[in-house]
Amino acid sequence: MELQLPNLLERLTPSEQYLLDALLSDTLLWMPHPENIPQIMAYVSEANILYYGGAAGGGKSDLLLGLATTAHKKSIIFRREFPQLRELVDRSAEILEGTGAHYTQTYTRWTGIPGGRRLEFGAVQHEKDREKYKGRPHDLKGFDEIPDFTEEQFRFLIAWNRSTDPNSVVESYVLVTLLPMRKENGLYDTGLLGYLMTMLIRLLLESYVGLPRWMDKM
C-alpha cells in the first residue's frame, strides 16, 4: 500500500487539520504533549466514544480541555460534583488567557473561544441532576473520572451527543477519563494510517517546542 503526503492530507480529521494549520500559522492555542503518544492518538481519534486512562498527571484533563477549545464547537465537561470542577476551570483559564474568551460563573461556561467555540462545565451529584441537561446537544461530551458516575447518568447524558450545525464537519464525540488504562484496551490499535499521522504530528509538535525528535531516541 503506497501512501503519499497528499493522500494523507486529504484524510485528515478536523482535529488533525487544526493541529497542522495551527502549527504552520503559529496560532496554536493548545497541543498534545509531543512525548505523550496516547494523548496525541486520543486527540486525533475518530472513535465516537473513547475511554482514555492513565496515572495522575498523565494529561487526561488537559486532553478534555484541549479538544473542547480547539476541535469542537459546543462542548460540555462533567464531573460528578461541582467542587471537583475547580481545577478544570482554572486550567481552562490558563489555556484561554489572552484569547478574548469570556467565562460566566453563573452558567460555568466559556463563550467567545477562537473559532466560535463554547465550553460548559456540568455536574450531576444526584440522579435527578441529570434532568438539567436533557435535550441539550453538544458535539463533545467529556466525563472526567467516569467511575464516579452511574451507568444510568452516563447513558442519559450522551443521548444528546450531536452537533446543532447541519453543515458541521466536526464529528460528535464522547471522551471519558479513568484510572488506569493499558495498551491492551485498544488505544494504540489505529492501523497504519493512524500510526503514520500520529508520528507526523509528533514530529511537528517536537519541532514546534524544540524537543528532541523521537527518531533520535530509538
Summary of the model, kept short:
The protein is of the alpha/beta class.
CATH superfamily: P-loop containing nucleotide triphosphate hydrolases
Strand segment count = 7
Overall geometric form: globular
Query: What's the domain count?
Result: 1
Strand order of the largest sheet: 1-7-6-2-5-4-3
| CATH topology grouping | Rossmann fold
Helix content: 25-40%
Main β sheet profile? 7 strands, mixed
Could you say which structural class the secondary elements and strand pairing correspond to?
A: alpha/beta
Distance between the termini: 25 Å
- The level 1 CATH classification is Alpha Beta
The proportion of residues in beta strands is: 15-25%
CATH architecture: 3-Layer(aba) Sandwich
Give helix and strand order, one letter per element, not per position: HHHEHEHEEEEHEH
Radius of gyration: 17 Å
Total helical segments? 7
Question: What is the mean pLDDT?
Answer: 79
Residue ranges: pLDDT <50 for 5 or more in a row?
Answer: 181-193, 211-218
